[in-house]
Amino acid sequence: MKLKRISVKSSLGNYSVIAGAGTVHRAAQEIAKLGRFSSIHVVSSTKVWRALSKSIQRGLQLPGKVHFHRMNDGESAKNLRTAELLSRVLVKSGADRKSLLIAVGGGVVGDVAGFVAAIYLRGVALVHVPTTLVAQVDSSIGGKTGVNLPEGKNLVGAFYPPRLVLIDPELLRTLPDREFRGGLAEVIKHAIIADAPMFGMLEQNMEKILRRDRTALGLLIPRNVAIKARVVSRDERESGLREILNFGHTFAHALESVTRYRRYQHGEAVAWGMIAAAFLGHELGLTRTADVSRIVALIRRLGPLPGWPQVPATTLLNAMRSDKKTRSGILRFVLSPRIGEARSYDTVPLHVVERVLHFTPRLIDASAGPLGKYRG
Ligand SMILES: NC(=O)c1ccc[n+]([C@@H]2O[C@H](COP(=O)([O-])OP(=O)(O)OC[C@H]3O[C@@H](n4cnc5c(N)ncnc54)[C@H](O)[C@@H]3O)[C@@H](O)[C@H]2O)c1
Ligand SMILES: [Zn+2]
Description:
The structure is a single chain. The chain is an alpha/beta fold. The chain folds into two domains: 4-174, Rossmann fold (3-Layer(aba) Sandwich); 177-222 and 234-365, Up-down Bundle (Dehydroquinate synthase-like, alpha domain). 46% of the residues lie in helices and 15% in strands. It contains 13 helices and eleven strands. The strands form three sheets. The protein has a seven-stranded mixed β-sheet. Strands 7-8 form a two-stranded antiparallel sheet. A two-stranded antiparallel ribbon has the order 10-11. α3 (80-92) crosses α4 (107-119), α6 runs antiparallel to α7 (196-210) and α9 (249-258) packs across α12 (313-321). Zinc ion binds next to α10.
């Protein structure tokens, strides 16, 4: 299959994303085009390396010495200590300003290694080789890097664009099923906010996609890369348009936070969040019943979700209000007036949000069929 080359605009320099089966075999060739580096440092995790070292090492037949560093990629290790440890390992292995850092892994490796690339000697070159679906269609594109604090997720970070992103869907073969399905939630999100034809394609091909059919993924992944690339190229610093990527996420973050990040894989919380956002759009007279039904039905084909937390709606509402993005006190919701379009709204009455938080689990859980009792 032909490789797709997608260009991303960034204030610190534009970069290419190359996507398609076999991309990793061209890694050395593509990296060589970036120029000469004094040393090359591949950062990955033990788990990723166990699954993928053969394919990656074959692709990274780079000239000169390549150093391999491993970090813990548990979400709990996405912190300043890991960033410090990695920086110190770089010093010990002689990395200087002309070194290249290659992040091979999921969003955790990408965010931490990306952050270190931004701050080590005030910035060294960075290449992403994402190995989860989330990382391939989302986190490796757009230049957001960072780590968590005990006070909250992603509170310390930098916008730091990579020089190149190499996306090979073949690397997803070894990804655990739950991670893969979680990533598909973000794919559905892209379809809802920006690509109605892709939504139709997902409806038609979900079984194939869940089987990780090569052709289906070969089409789907570059298309999602293009959506993310287009949005972040137009609004790198999230002053407007980029916000639409948060569709379902105001709800999702609240669900994750009240369950202390233990119950859901992020994509599962986003799946619930998108259902709630569709209901909210409908309650406000914005999203049509037929679209709500299609959204709910497609999300449910991802498989069963961990249950909605048994807490009062007000607890979730409070969690939303303490989210870092709503510190100003105004709750913003991304809503979809029709599949393929989304916009951010900051005038949603709280009692409507509360009602949606109350009835969403009742409608969805009570149902054996895909739509629950929801008929608008
Ligand atoms: N920077 C951004 O714009 C952005 C966007 C979305 C998410 N994120 C961040 O990304 C993180 C989540 O990333 P993720 O969903 O990619 O998961 P992850 O990095 O936590 O990886 C999930 C699990 O899959 C394993 N794994 C990764 N690739 C594998 C492979 N090919 N085969 C087998 N196992 C593999 C990992 O070792 C890990 O156990 C969160 O910290 C989130 O905040 C950042
Ligand atoms: Zn997300």
